[in-house]
Amino acid sequence: MPELPEVEALKDFLTEHLVGHEIVRVLPVAISVLKTYDPPLSAVEGHEVVAVHRHGKFLDLVTDGGPHLVTHLARAGWLQWRDRLPDGPPRPGKGPLALRVALETGEGFDLTEAGTQKRLAVHVVQDPREIAGVARLGPDPLGDDFDLARFADLLKPERRRLKGALRDQSLIAGVGNAYSDEILHAAKMSPYKLAASLTPEETARLHAALRDTLTEAVERSRGVAAGRLKAEKKSGLRVHGRTGEPCPVCGDTIREVSFSDSSLQYCPTCQTGGKPLADRRMSRLLK
Predict the structure, then answer these.
(1) Which of 265, 287, 260 is nearest to 276 (CA)?
(2) Which of 14, 174, 221, 231 is 20 to 30 A from 53, alpha carbon to alpha carbon?
(3) What is the pTM of this model?
(4) Contact assessment for residue 264 and residue 163, using Cβ atoms and an 8 Å cutoff
């Protein structure tokens, strides 16, 4: 799933390639991606893109005198830039193409989504805050106002595990499964530790790890072409998706806990005092 660093990089990429250009056609291929109907998708056609913003994991294309075209790439969505779009409209089918946006230059981009769970979302709205997912977003962790005091206030009432708290978009915007693993590893904290139980020193350490991890990921992604961002993200991850590999800090084996639709990775030596976390799915299989 694209998270804050990748969406931030896509925002920068699209700012460079879209701003100042006119959207001449928006062609839906998978109707399931359209989450609004008024204004219609065609309302952005004939309008110039004047800015591109990011709201958490949402991409917001602002048009001059027209509505916003807002996209959430969900788990398996992606944006593919094309220096020259194919002639003729795309054909609906079983492929990954969901929506195509064409500019007056002949350039444009495709929104694609792999897999069978179709969660990619496209909204056409006058104000992004009309979208429930945007309206409920917590503060941006890279914002100038996201200081230690604000972070501590957010965590103080949270009587749940750090892994879940970091991923909650209404608490902190933009962090998902991968970067929550990376942040907790950098902070040397168990994903099962209760958020409200942190000491002031631990809160400061987690805040620094959160800001540093995301800032470094954004810097790695900045300037990378849209098509290479997925590979860049994977290459920069230290524990997430690296089950069975040695921890780059201590050399211990990266472990995994599986859930119904996701998994987390962690280092026992760095994060849990050497104690493996219970993986209930594996426990059931071994009985």
Answers:
(1) 265
(2) 231
(3) 0.92
(4) yes
